[in-house]
Amino acid sequence: MALGLITLAASAQWTNPSEDVPAYNASAPTRTLPPVLSGDQLTGVYFSHPYQVIAYQMAAKIPAVLHQQPCYCHCDRALKHNSLHSCFEGTHGAACSTCMKEAVYAYQQTKLGQTPKEIRAGIERGDWVNVDLEKAAL
Prior knowledge:
Layout lengths: L1 H11 L37 H12 L1 H5 L7 H4 L5 H4 L9 H15 L4 H10 L13
Helix pairs in contact: 2-6, 6-7
């Protein structure tokens, strides 16, 4: 067992992080997606900053786009999320700057005419990292 753990730990140093893309859906949803939290659900301890509410409002406007995006907080592992959309079905998105930045980025790029596939390429490159949540606006 110890040898197995050592082997696993040693092999981790040779993995390529760019190949470790979190879960997403390659095409538009074929069924109605669960709703993004909205209205009175956007109050309380998880929504103490205006940008948290704005991120959810943006997410609600582009659910099919978020369905096709990975989430680099890797919530697919711990929370079994299947895309960035999953983060906004509950309060996880409000507690995670990665989720919010990616959603704001996806919304902004959608407004600029980018396709979900083009947005996913930008997310995979890390283009969302420099999103300023304080300046996010609908």
